[in-house]
Write a structure and sequence with these properties.
24% strand, alpha/beta, globular, five-stranded parallel beta sheet
Length: 172
C-alpha cells in the first residue's frame, strides 16, 4: 500500500479532475520522472483502492475537484491537502482565481476533512517586488490568515528560489 502525492508537479485538482477520475476507474496511472529509470522512463502506479493508503493533493484551486473528493470520501480513501493561496494578481498568476474565491474554496475543502490538520496553507512563493513589497505581504498574509483561522493548523512559507529554468523563462 502507498500514499500518493498526486499533484506536486501539476495541479491535478485545478486542471485535471476528469483525468484523475478516469485514472481511478482504470485502476492505475503512469508517470515520468526527470530522474529516469522505469520502463522507457515511465512508471506505473496502482490506484486500486486496496493499494492506496491515501492521497496528498497540491493545489491553488480545488473547486473543479469536489466531485472527485466526494468519490474518495464515499470510497473511504483519505486525503490531505497542501493548498497554496498567495493573493497575487493576474500579473503574476493569470490562471488562478482571485484571493477571496480561493479562500472560499479552501474553507469548503477544509470543512469536508476530518480535522484542520488535514489541510496545510502554503503562502509560497513569496515574491518581493516594487508592487509586492514587504508591507503588501504583511497585510496580505494577515488578511488571509484571519479568514483561514480554524480551517488549518499549519502554514508553510518560502521565498522565490531563482532556479535556472525559471530565470530562463523570465528572460525570454
Amino acid at each position: 500500500m502507498h500514499i500518493i502525492s498526486a499533484s506536486r508537479r501539476t495541479d491535478i485538482p485545478h486542471y485535471f479532475s476528469d483525468w484523475f477520475g478516469e485514472r481511478r476507474k482504470a485502476g492505475f496511472a503512469e508517470y515520468r520522472t526527470v530522474f529516469g529509470g522505469g520502463k522507457n522512463g515511465r512508471f506505473h502506479v496502482s490506484l486500486e483502492p486496496d493499494d492506496v493508503l491515501g492521497y496528498l493533493f497540491w493545489t491553488k484551486f480545488a473547486d473543479p475537484f469536489h466531485e472527485q473528493l466526494h468519490d474518495l470520501r464515499i470510497s473511504g480513501i483519505p486525503y490531505v491537502f497542501q493548498y497554496t493561496i498567495t493573493g497575487y494578481g493576474k500579473d503574476i498568476q493569470p490562471g488562478i482565481p482571485d484571493r477571496s474565491t480561493a479562500i472560499n474554496d479552501f474553507l469548503r475543502v477544509s470543512a469536508d476533512l476530518p480535522a484542520a490538520s488535514a489541510i496545510q496553507w502554503r503562502y509560497d512563493p513569496i515574491l518581493v517586488s516594487s508592487h509586492y513589497n514587504a508591507d503588501w505581504h504583511r497585510t496580505n498574509f494577515e488578511q488571509i490568515s484571519e479568514q483561514l483561522q480554524g480551517a488549518t493548523r499549519v502554514v508553510n512559507v518560502s521565498f522565490v528560489e531563482p532556479y535556472l529554468k525559471a530565470i530562463t523563462h523570465l528572460l525570454q
